[in-house]
Amino acid sequence: MKRSSFHPILAGIAALGLLAGCETPPPGATPDAGDGTTTVVTRGPVAPPVAERVAPLASPGPNKVLAIVDLSDQRLTAVRGFDDGRQPEQYHWVISSGIDRKPTPTGQFYVDFLSPDHVSSIYHVPMPWSVFFNGNIAIHGDPDARMLGQTASNGCVRLHPAQAEIFYKMVEDVGLRNTTIIVRQ
């Protein structure tokens, strides 16, 4: 077992769901009584889940990325267009989105910034390959990945880290303003 610092007041606030943003304690984290730490059970790597076949999207255009986050079935479809005649690159991934009291915002967004090795400022847990949109909401890797396929975050869109890296690099390659993220029910 690995132990990490976790302030008891933050534990109470987190339990009430009062923290803003998408940063949540790591799965399996439980505050210990009175000593100000959290117990985190670590497990081996989790293989990326396989998304069911999804109808292909049209190319978003040359050197553009389109990501469709479908909250109803916990899937993300990402497609990248090329200007050199190559067929569009397309991926379908299983995600975890926001829980009922901290839902993932819906709408159309552009990317605000990228952070390849972001660490949660609240829980000090890794959020690898973060693609931030709508302020403090991100599409990012979830090193634990056990909750993929169901709602689990405080608003973020979680992916397997290997898939998050692919998406991050697609966005980095075409640029922030050439990437559109659509989140729908």
From TrEMBL:
Active site location: 140, 156
Residue ranges occupied by any L,D-TPase catalytic domain in the UniProt entry: 65-184
InterPro entries per the UniProt record, alphabetical: LD-transpeptidase (IPR050979), LD_TPept_cat_dom (IPR005490), Transpep_catalytic_dom (IPR038063)
Pathway the protein acts in: Cell wall biogenesis; peptidoglycan biosynthesis
Keywords: Cell shape, Cell wall biogenesis/degradation, Peptidoglycan synthesis, Signal, Transferase
CDD domains for this protein: YkuD_like
Stretch forming the signal peptide: 1-20
Pfam families, per database record: YkuD
Entry's family note: Belongs to the YkuD family.
Full protein name: L,D-TPase catalytic domain-containing protein
Provenance organism: Sinisalibacter aestuarii
